Amino acid sequence: xxxxxxxxxxxxxxxxxxxxxxxxxxxxxxxxxxxxxxxxxxxxxxxxxxxxxxxxxxxxxxxxxxxxxxxxxxxxxxxxxxxxxxxxxxxxxxxxxxxxxxxxxxxxxxxxxxxxxxxxxxxxxxxxxxxxxxxxxxxxxxxxxxxxxxxxxxxxxxxxxxxxxxxxxxxxxxxxxxxxxxxxxxxxxxxxxxxxxxxxxxxxxxxxxxxxxxxxxxxxxxxxxxxxxxxxxxxxxxxxxxxxxxxxxxxxxxxxxxxxxxxxxxxxxxxxxxxxxxxxxxxxxxxxxxxxxxxxxxxxxxxxxxxxxxxxxxxxxxxxxxxxxxxxxxxxxxxxxxxxxxxxxxxxxxxxxxxxxxxxxxxxxxxxxxxxxxxxxxxxxxx
Length: 383
Description:
Elements: H1 17-20, H2 27-38, H3 44-70, E1 83-85, H4 87-110, H5 113-143, E2 152-159, E3 166-174, H6 175-194, H7 197-214, E4 215-217, H8 220-240, H9 243-250, E5 256-260, H10 263-266, E6 273-277, H11 279-297, H12 304-327, H13 334-352, H14 355-360, H15 369-382
Parallel strand pairs: 1-4
Antiparallel strand pairs: 2-3, 5-6
Helix pairs in contact: 3-7, 3-11, 3-12, 4-8, 4-9, 5-6, 5-7, 6-7, 7-11, 8-11, 8-13, 11-12, 11-13, 12-13
């Protein structure tokens, strides 16, 4: 799901003043000028800051998204209900992802990159506003002044009339949601006009957090199928072809987190970025969130499997960065994340004698009436 990569180096549009006086007609001098302008070498401090920031940003949506996934589904809005991923969905996902990735690659090869990115920017502009607004909503509930009146609103679209009337959209919101929407729109306009890396990261973090919160694996076996399939997908498209890296660098949309390696030299106007794909956050993240919900189902004070998998993610991402930095080549992060995120909790479950219980843990869509009935019966038995 996209790789973690070093800076995508683009030659500066203007040469540094010190090079302007050189004789550009001399082929040797011209080559020297081009090499000097095009090649960027990050300082050790800049590299450490970029990688450390990427790791920190990746951990935020996983941690808070997992916590929010526990209470997810209690909202009245259908947009806040979790989407359950079954074993069949998990098995098909790498195939669908491969077709989508290769389709994007062909689009960038055939059509003008500028127009494709313009369409994608508008699409992600709308999605980003909604995702960021949803992300901000719980924080707004805590800081919203109590003396300001809160008004309720409802957006309702129906189809047909009388008994045949069918709801298409039924969204309830209030004053706090409107404020979140306004703030998110400001960020969206900033992103569209400037494509600034901070605005990109705000949208990227919101997408990742919403993905971890709202995408629910139905059991651990499904998680293993999904992570295993995407393990093969990531390795093939990064090591087997140049498709993944090409799309990641050509795709001007907030589908990756970026951080400049030249921030210390150029400040907020920095332009040489290290990047981490959102798939490398969301896919392990939904598995980690599942293990947190499994911890909750055990009704113990500790969150053993959540913290084990969370530390495993840090270890796997650290390994990715170390290998990439050592061999100077883009790395499929899932190559290291999948074995760590699955292996560590399984070993802990074996040591605690809870492996069978872990793989028997089942989650299904809360919208299923049969599921609600079973949940109610289980609650009665517990009481």
